[in-house]
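Note to self: user wants both folds in one dump. Writing first protein now.
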Amino acid sequence: MTRTRKLAASWDRMRNIPGLGRNLVTVAVLVALGIGSSAYILSNYSVSWPWQAREVVQMDFSKGPGLVADGGQEVRIAGVKVGTISAATAQTDGVRVTVDLDPGHPVYANAHADLKSKTPLNDPYISLEPGGSPAPELATDGSGVIPASQTTRLIQPFEVLNNLDTRTREALTSLVDEADVGLKDSPQQLPGSLHSVTDALNTLKPVADQLQTRRQTIQTLVTDLSEISTAAGRNDGRLAGLVASLQTTLSTLANRDDQLGDTLNQLPGLGDDLRHALGSVNTLTGQLDPTLDDLENASDALPPALSKLTDTLQDAGPVVDAARPVVAKARPVVGDLRPLVSDAHAALDDLKPTTGLLPNATAQVAPWLPNLQAFIFQTSSAFSLQDANGGYGRAQVFIDASNPAGGLQNEGKGTSPGPGDEARTKKTGGGN
């Protein structure tokens, strides 16, 4: 009761003070707004409340640009936020970062962490690859550490520029300063320039393709060399034998240095002979060119000649077929004539002095033989009654060798033989 009376007395007093109620309401509203704003801000800063369950893992980086302890910077796995950076401590060889992860995200000893930035203004976050078996799982009580060999950091632009010399940095600064003036008319001129760049890049595309092919070839060569090196490393015994054989060969060459010198001294003479031989070959080439030209000219006339020869051989085929039985029957006769031919060869040697006088004697004894030649012209046989043109007349000619005039008589005309018929010879012939 006493307490209730005190509250009633205080309320009456507040009501009796002018403006006190309004002030109290204003203060209450401001306190509520402050609490709401604080809660909203703290929610965006990802504040870790003491009663929340967290898993703590540490990471070592060579440098940590933009890292802020308790700044609510994110830790992501596959692009999804799974924790925050709770601390960043500088060390002699880099920065050790402590991260708080949500439960259910185990990290293994083969994990890898990348320090990246959301914007060019160094708003960093950590992209974590948690790894997996067979590596052991890291402790989540803060004792597990991912070493610097398994982390990569964000490279700052000034670090790239610091590798340039003074003149290049000055030229780059001047380029940035003059870019405002140079890009003043860019809406009108830049599209055409970009089209020109496109044409230039299309022109350079074959070169890029060739460079890509060359890169692949070099990669294949390096791979082959690696395989050769690996094979050679595994064959230590064979490689040692090869080195020993090389040493023996070099020793033998050293012992025969004088002989090698004599051989080298003979090389100039060999070069002169080779030069002379090449000159002869050049001359032969000059003589061979006309021959090849003649062969080329003959090649034009050779096909018609071969065609005619083919027709001739086709016509000669029946003749050869018809002559085959005659040749078969004549073979035994020729075999029987072989002894006679050997005897006739010796007889002909004896008759050789006499045959030299026969042309003159024949001209004196039978001057009418040219007339007889016309009589038997184009006949297939002197004793045949027909030739290729058909039948012809038959005549009997008597030749009197004792008559100086030749004694040519034609029995068909009824001429009677003269004296000396014993010496006559009878010959039957024909002509066209």
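First done. Writing the second protein, which came from a different request thread.
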Amino acid sequence: MLDKEIINILINFHNYSFTIIDKEENVIYWSDRAAKIFNMDNDYVIGKKITDIFAEDKLIMVKSLRENKVIEKQQHKATENVYVDIKSVPICIDGKVEGAIVSEVNVTEKIQREEQIEILKNKVSSLSDIMQQLNNSNFKNIIYRSSVMERVKSQIERAAETNANILITGETGVGKELFAQAIHSTSKVKGDMVPINCGAIPSHLFESELFGYEKGAFTGANRAGNKGKVELAENGTLFLDEIGEMPIDMQVKFLRVLQEKQYFKLGGNKEINTNFRLVSATNKKISDLLSSEEFRLDLLYRVNVVNIHIPPLRERPEDIEALFYYYLYSMSEKYDMSIKYANKQLISELKKYPWPGNVRELMNVIERLVIFSNEETLNNEIFHQYLTEVGEDNSISKNIITDETIELKDYVEKIEADYIKYILDENNNNIEKSSEILGISRPTLYAKVKKFGL
């Protein structure tokens, strides 16, 4: 009796967790610290087989018992939020292994500090890359780390040295105007870059917007006339955004400008010489423009001498983190808020999302995170709410029945395993919470985790 009381005092004497099992692998001692770490009291644990409580592959003390050896493991994840350094020693009496004892030291704060330092290192690295890119004034606000975007940059630098017409293609939101500005800045033209969105101007106003008009050209016209975009872009760059939306009747007139380098103002009778660098952009595929009856092939061949394709964000996930930190800083400055931390889980989830709206969508999400996160760390739940809002299926991937014939029992087990994995993932592998949601006991859940190898 005294021996038992002494052991109880000793295993609770230090701020360590202690567990002792006998040779049958039954738990015979469970310290108060162990109960706190694993949220399981003595009455629940003592007397049970340790393998009924924890997955066997997570139990180094079982290995220590069976193989009669001392085992140490650093930074073992004991629970969802607790890391420990662990040591297991077999208990030998008269040369026979009669049990094993394991001790655990809580090192969670140390691990969290290391993780925070790693996050800060990544942040500094990303910001350093961003600053290097921003120092290159020709590519202002174009943030990337991927090799594919490095190739795009090289294409721009090479094409900008020539006077060739350039067509930028890419999905909505990839930042085509930024790349047009980079082409303009890299080229040797002396004038300004003048943008015009072909899809935003009513067709009956397009000619006057592009070529300008003489005084009295039409009712309500400016008495002094007006300069058009072509004239404003003299010795500079004319950027035609969404050129695929240019009215068909204007395509013929603009084609003549490209061929002859001359045009008439609306209401004018004097032909004007012009000189500009043409950069166009479209979110349509070249193949779609070729097959379209709304876009002239001869104009397409003129504007698409050099094609610069900007890949969507989903094809360059390595750029997401750099873009994230750049816009996190920008948005925090915009709203005069302190810069908040982003944990690894958020960065990982951002990288997995396909971003159909590309960089523009990423900017909007970051802005929302900055505005609504109240703590020192950005609130991941805000991003999860956004996923629900846009209809992104963040639930279990659907099981697809293939041509392979399997028994009903095996198929049911597959469904069960997938669902258990989903619940565990959703709850950060918290066994207690997951077992409550699943409606089964913790030992049963541990047994199923072991069975399905989750």
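Dump finished. Worth passing along: The longest strand covers residues 83-93.
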